[in-house]
Design brief:
By secondary structure, this protein is an alpha/beta fold. It has a single domain (2-199), classed as Glycosidases (TIM Barrel). 44% of the residues lie in helices and 13% in strands. The protein has ten helices and seven strands. It has helices at 2-6, 28-37, 50-74, 87-94, 98-103, 119-126, 129-134, 155-167, 178-182, 189-199, and strands spanning 11-15, 79-83, 109-113, 140-145, 147-148, 151-152, 173-176. A five-stranded parallel beta sheet has the order 1-2-3-4-7. Strand 5 and strand 6 (151-152) form a beta hairpin. The longest helix is centred in the first third of the chain and has 25 residues, at 50-74. The radius of gyration is 20 Å and the shape is globular.
Amino acid sequence: MEIVDRYDVDGIQLDDHMGLPSEFGYDEFTVELYKQEHNGQEPPSDPKDPDWIRWRADKITEFMEKLFRAVKARDEDAIVALSPNPQNFSYREFLADWSTWEQKGFIEEIIVQVYRSDRDAFIAELEDESIQKARQHIPVGIGILSGLKGRPIPMSQIADQVNIVRDRGFAGVSFFFYQSLWTWAPTPAEARAESLKDMFPETEIAPNILEGWQPPTN
């Protein structure tokens, strides 16, 4: 709220930590709240219990609604965006049910972190039902892993994944992360820069995602 109040920002982007590890929830406050809503019953000892996951995820969804409405009350033009893990992992491991968030209208743009080196696994994630549903409502981009320290990603893989995303008509790509685009790889930074120029031969101005966007027709 402070950022939206004090700065001329286009919006707020949250990431895959807009939730809590599914092992969390056994603190005194949460246990007491659960007991109040379950006739004094203790929460399940298994953190992956389906009903226990659902209850905690619903609480985070309630918070997401409050956050969205608070941002919009301060600046109706500020975009509320999210960069989550794929839905199944996000929900199971972080109690972040972003598919429900976007269906309820609390998210206006999504960039899904599809950090997969295996080509078939990468494509399978793009075809997941949650992503396909979301892109009928809002712009959906794909996050591509460009490398980690000790885990370089070849530019050939990055270029292939960019083409896969483009062929399927997604709203765009985002790389994780900036430094690894140029360094931490066997190839020189100059060569990687040339590869990026081949992928993006023209300068693109970031569009206003809320003006003129249409869902894909394919």
